[in-house]
Amino acid sequence: MPVRQPAYQLTEWRIAKVQLNYHIQVERNYYSVPYEYVQCDVEVRLTKNLIEVYFNQSRISSHKRINNKTNQYSTLHDHMPDHHRMYAEHTPGNVKDWAKKLERIHSIWWSRYWINK
C-alpha cells in the first residue's frame, strides 16, 4: 500500500521587520512575534491558512492567517513582555478581586490598629 502524501500547498516567502509593538505586517494585518525580536528582519512563510515567522532558519511564531479582513491583530500573550502581559490581563474581574483582597487586608490592619490604641 503506498504511503499517503500530504496535499501540496503553495507557499510564498517574504521578509518583514518586527515593529516596536512586536508585530509584523503582512497584507495589512498584524501578527505577533516574541518581543525579543523587535527591530529584526524575519522571514515570513505564507500559505493559504497559515503564517509562519522564521529567524535564522528557526520558526519563532505561527498564526492562523487572517483572510478577507484588514487592520486586524493576531497577538499571542506569550509574545508580550511581562509588563504588557500584566496590562492585558488587567480585566474588570481581576481589579474587583484585587480590591476585595485589599479590603480584607485593610480591615485586618484597621482592627489591629484600634485594638493596640
Overview of this structure, please?
- It is a single chain.
- It is elongated and about 80 Å long.
- The chain is α+β, with helices and mostly antiparallel strands and 117 residues long.
- It contains 2 helices and 7 strands; from the N terminus they run E-E-E-E-E-E-E-H-H.
- It has helices at residues 82-88, 92-115; strands spanning 12-17, 23-26, 29-32, 41-46, 50-55, 58-64, 73-74.
- The longest helix has 24 residues, at 92-115.
- A 4-stranded antiparallel sheet has the order 1-4-5-6, with no helix packed on it. Strands 2-3-7 form a 3-stranded mixed sheet, with no helix packed on it.
- Helix content is 26%, strand content 30%.
- Strand 2 and strand 3 (29-32) form a beta hairpin.
List keywords for this structure.
117 residues; three-stranded mixed β-sheet; 2 helices
Q: State the helix count.
A: 2
Termini separation:
88 Å
Query: Numbering strands along the chain, what is their spatial order in the largest sheet?
Result: 1-4-5-6
| Outline | elongated
Average pLDDT score: 86
Largest sheet: 4 strands, antiparallel
Which H/E pattern describes the elements?
A: EEEEEEEHH
> Strand content of the residues, in percent?
25-35%
Taking pLDDT < 50 over at least 5 consecutive residues as the criterion, the unreliable ranges are none
Task: Evaluate the radius of gyration.
Answer: 23 Å
The helix content is 25-40%
| DSSP summary, beta strand count | 7
Structural class: alpha+beta
